[in-house]
Write a structure and sequence with these properties.
The protein is of the alpha/beta class. The chain is built from 11 helices and 6 strands.
Length: 264
């Protein structure tokens, strides 16, 4: 079994004085393998991200970001392509200290209209939640990374709120030390109930159109070339398709509706 332990840093997006989102400014990740009872820390990934909006001085100080790191950083689409290439095609389980990293990664990818190929059909495991459940025996608040390091008798390495340190030196070590005591229950990386409303509306329209035309999954499958099972998964939001694929499917149904209207 193999895991990708990742950590993000981000800068808040303000609109009218209120936080409306977060822009990723740094991604760090490390490969952790479990083999014959042994847990090994392997490959590492790290990259700064150049945000579209100005990062405040306060946030730069909070995340220990230097001006040179900010100026030389790459945009998110380029970083995600590098991250995807680094991850590869093996069936890794993604893991982070707190579920918020997963949500922010997905939101940022959506903001740049990036496909979810890297995490599509992947599993995710919230290490913070599992560790807190084990230590508090199902009761109490979530435990911070620094506290978890101390509880395990380890020393926090590097600076807090730096992905390069949190992922490599601290989260991965907590994972290794606590692995055999944790209840690891991975879940799908993408929770489609949290996906954007626009996409859900498009899927709702596809389903409504199919029902209005009165076409079965089998009939639609023969025309569209998409398997019956996949059509069901699309409508139930179990899998996500690109805008182009949904547009083609919608066009197919519209043409079928036109044919039905002509027969009448």
């Amino acid at each position: 079994m193999k895991f990708i332990v990742f950590d993000l840093e981000w800068s808040p997006i303000f609109r009218k004085g209120k936080v409306r989102g977060q822009e990723i400014t740094e991604i760090g990740a490390v490969e952790v393998s479990v083999l014959d009872g042994m847990i090994l820390i392997g490959r590492r990934f790290h990259c700064y991200v150049r945000s579209r909006r100005r990062v405040s001085r306060r946030n730069r100080k909070f995340t220990n970001m230097k001006d040179t790191e900010r100026w030389l950083a790459l945009r998110l689409p380029t970083v995600i392509r590098s991250f995807d290439s680094w991850v590869g095609k093996e069936p890794y389980i993604f893991c982070s200290w707190g579920e918020v990293d997963r949500r922010i990664l997905l939101k940022n990818m959506q903001a740049y209209h990036l496909d979810f190929d890297m995490v599509e059909h992947r599993k995710y495991f919230d290490l913070q939640d599992a560790f807190s459940m084990e230590v508090n025996q199902g009761k109490g608040n979530l435990i911070g990374l620094g506290s978890a390091v101390k509880l395990l008798g380890l020393r926090f390495v590097g600076k807090p709120h730096r992905s390069v340190d949190d992922a490599y030196n601290n989260t991965a070590r907590v994972f290794v030390e606590a692995y055999h005591t944790l209840e690891i229950t991975p879940e799908p990386f993408i929770d489609y109930l949290e996906m954007d409303k626009t996409y859900k509306k498009k899927i709702w329209y596809v389903k409504l159109m199919r029902e209005k035309v009165g076409v079965s999954y089998k009939e639609l499958s023969e025309i569209s070339g998409i398997s019956e099972k996949e059509l069901e998964q699309i409508e139930s939001l179990e899998i996500r398709k690109t805008k182009k694929e949904i547009a083609v499917l919608t066009g197919t149904l519209l043409s079928m509706r036109g044919e039905t209207a002509e027969k009448r």
